[in-house]
Design goal:
The chain has 12 helices and no strands.
Amino acid sequence: MKHDVRNVLVIAQKEFADNLWSPRFISLMLIFTLIIFSFSYRQALSGRNIFEMGFLDVAQIITVFLPLLGIALGFDSVVKERKSASLNILLTHPVYRDNIITGKILGAMITLLVVVCVAVAASVGTMLIITGVQAGWTELSRVLIFTVLSYLYLSIFLALGVLTSIISKSAVSSLMTGICIWLVLCVVYGAIVLVIASIVTDQVIFEIENNDKALDLNAQLQKLSVSHHYSEPVVAHGVTWGGTGRGGTHTVSGIFDTRYTLNQWTDEYWTNIVVLVTAPVILLIISFMAFMRQDISG
C-alpha cells in the first residue's frame, strides 16, 4: 500500500512539474491572468466593488474562457505517453495502471488548483485593493467559497480533457475534441437552446407579450449546461451567450451578496452545488475505468 502511494505521488509530482513549466501552459496562464486582471481593474475603477455585484464581467470570463485551461491540462496527459511508448516502459517497473492514471489525475488537479488561486487572486485582490473595501471574515469566506466553486467547475473540463486523451488516437484529435466540447458547452450552448425553445414553442424569445412558454422551456434546457450550474450560485444567472431566462427568480444574488447568510445562499443554490461536486467525480471515475480497460500497447 505504501509502495503504491509512493508511486502515485512520484507520478503526480512529475505531471505537476511538466504542466507547470510547459511553455503552452505558461502562455495560456499569462494571457488569462492579464485578461482577468484588466476586467477586474476596469470594474474597480467604475466604483463597483465585488460585494455590490461588480463581478459579472469577470465571472463571464471565468465561465466561458477559463475552461480552456482545464482542457489544456488534460488533453495530452495520456495520449502523449502512449504514443511515445513511455507507458509500456513505465509498466515494466513495479508500477500498476491504477498508479499511473491516479498520479496523472492528481498532478493535473494540483496544477489546476494553482491556476484557480492565481485567477482569484488577480480578480478579487485587484478589486479589493483598488476600491479599498475592507474584507472581514464574512467577505473572505465568500471569496473562499467562490474559489472552491471555480475549482470544481474547471475540474469538469480537466476531467473531460483527460477522458479525451484516453480515448483519442493522437494529441491533435484529443485537442480538437476538447475544443469542440468547450465551444458547445461554454460558447454556443445558450444560443442553441434559445433557438430550440423558439422552434418548439413557436414563440420568439424577445417578443415580450408572447414568450412565456419559450422562456420556460429555455430556462429548463439551460439547466443541462455545466456553465449554468457555475454561474447561477456565483452571480445568480447565466452568463453564456444566448443564456436568456426569466429575471428576478433568485432572492440571493450570488455568493457575493452579503445581505444574506451562507445558509440562505446554500438553500437557494444547493442543486447547482451538487452538480458541480458530482460532475467531475463521475467524469474522473469514467476516465479511470476507461484507462484501466484500454490497450496501451501503441
